[in-house]
Fold:
Amino acid sequence: MSTYGANSQDGSINSNQDNISTGISLELDLFSGFGTEQRIKQAERRLEEARLNARKIRLQINQEVNTSYLALAEALQRYKVSATSVTAANEAFRLVTAQFQAGTATVTRYIEAEVARDQADARAIASRFDTLRAYAVLQRVTGIGE
Structure:
């Protein structure tokens, strides 16, 4: 802030009668009861808490993805084993059918082979379903299927 004035009663300009005044106004909160410092510390704590929460969420997502991937790998292995089991059961049933038709296998043996084949088929269907379900879960946790 600054002001200028002149003390002349007759209106003439004379440098001996000039008044100049200059000042600065400053408002500074010297003591706020440590409120500013506390607000800064609180904001820093909230920031650190948010960082920790984000890290926790990333770890949870990684764990879900890894678990889902391992479940899919396990389901695929079971499916491969069940497919091999179906092949073996079909071959066994074919052989027992030939023996039964030749009269060298009993009805009981024929029925056992047929039941074993059907059970192998059922396990293969279940393992295929498990594989598809595990794949769907992996897609969900990775966001691929959306």
In short: The chain has a mean pLDDT of 87. The radius of gyration is 44 Å. The longest strand covers residues 2-6.
